[in-house]
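User: I'm writing a short methods note and want a consistent example. For DNA-binding phage zinc finger domain-containing protein, I'll paste the sequence; you return only the structure tokens, no commentary, since I'll be parsing the reply automatically.
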Amino acid sequence: MPDFTIHTHPVLAVPCPDCRAATGAWCKRPSGHRAADLHRARKEAADRVFISQHGPDATIRFDEDLDRWQIEAADICAPAAP
Ligand SMILES: [Zn+2]
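Assistant:
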């Protein structure tokens, strides 16, 4: 199961279906040089896996104090009725 918190970028938790970069490796241009950005297909794949693991309302953010990514589950409490 991919771990979205252990890489420098959460999307690196899945391999790239576009340039075939492995899990943990940055995307490559056809020349083999490092791509400026991660491929869109990889970001979409990461989104799908993240949602299947953590649900559609979970989020991930970088915690500067802990110096690592943190997954935050959606608030399951419904807002109080007025
Ligand atoms: Zn790629």
